[in-house]
Write a structure and sequence with these properties.
Helix content: 40-55%
Structural class: alpha+beta
Strand content: 15-25%
Largest sheet: 10 strands, mixed
Oligomer: single chain
CATH superfamily of the largest domain: 3-hydroxy-3-methylglutaryl-coenzyme A Reductase, Chain A, domain 2
Amino acid sequence: MEMDEKAILEQLESGKLSLHKIEEYIAPERAAKIRREFIGKLASCDLRAIGEVKLDYNKIHNKNAENVIGAISIPLGVAGPILLKGEYAKGEFYVPLATTEGALIASISRGMKGINESGGAEVRIINEGMARAPVFEFDSAKLAVEFSKWVEKNTKQIAMEAEKTTKHGKLKTITSFIVGNNVWLRFLFDTGDAMGMNMATVASEAACNYIEKNFSDASLVAISGNMCSDKKESYINELLGRGRGVVADCVIKKEVLEKTFNTSAVEINKINIKKNLLGSSRAGSSKHNAHFANVIAAVFAATGQDIAQIVESSSGYTWTEERNGSLYISVTLPSIEVGTIGGGTSLSTQTEALSMLGVLDKTKKTGENSRKLVEIIAASVLAGELNLLCALSKRELGSAHEKLGRNKK
């Protein structure tokens, strides 16, 4: 039953209608407009700009967000090009970065320039698999151990039940972790080109239903027991990986360090050891890098990834070595969680950003587009680390932000 806008506003103001139910009476785009008017009146503010950002409200409804009133604008720039010699990403790429931090894109671009002048970056994926880890409880530790052994013997049947829920997902492994009378089963799935968190959750639920029916002493406490570990910093993801693990490296030539960055391999290596390795350890941080999160956040926002997964996706290590005046530099990211289908990747602007990178190629085998995206991200992180370490060695960090990252009167 359709209701006019005036009547809907009156019912919202009287409390007779909830914000999330407006689409029952009116189309999604008009529903967003009414919510803006209602919230704007309530807060005594103008929400016109929020409503002017272009969105396909029909696609978003019941998929990407609830109680939609519009969208937020984030400046989108490009860094590059960067020359890649990956297994899936080969050639030069301009990388889309959505950020409000002045100097970030310029910084990454200068790092890319240095990488190009040294012959490009090598990139390789080292692990794959999206994890979901339900936790079960038992009456005793004895039963917990018996259960773990039973799961190991019945992995194939559990996998069959899990895979009935998905066309593309495949259960790769099940790893048991026991604490007293509690058992976590860390399911690891191949999710193709999707980031795959929802896919892994639905498949894990089916697996758990089968487990409870066939091991009567098992009682599921929660489908996610934090051994996954999703949207949280954890050593398990750094050790076993989640999503995709990747390494990018390059040897920056001595003459490039001198000409492009006005620094030396000795200085950069010293800063990396004392800042990224020793400083992070002394602070109790598991993130032994300079600013992975800066690049990850900008690419995630640009390409429609799950923003909260920046937490684990930006974990990792920057490693450097001085080699006869040249600099070996690598970044290792064990847990980048991205996809080229699903979630926010279907939004029009994010789809265009993914198209820029050539990762929406329907002729590729399942999984190859997302692997290509991971390699591009890792190389961009490498460029960001290189330039920041160089800037620190020349004490340029403050002046760069003074020039590009501060509001001018």
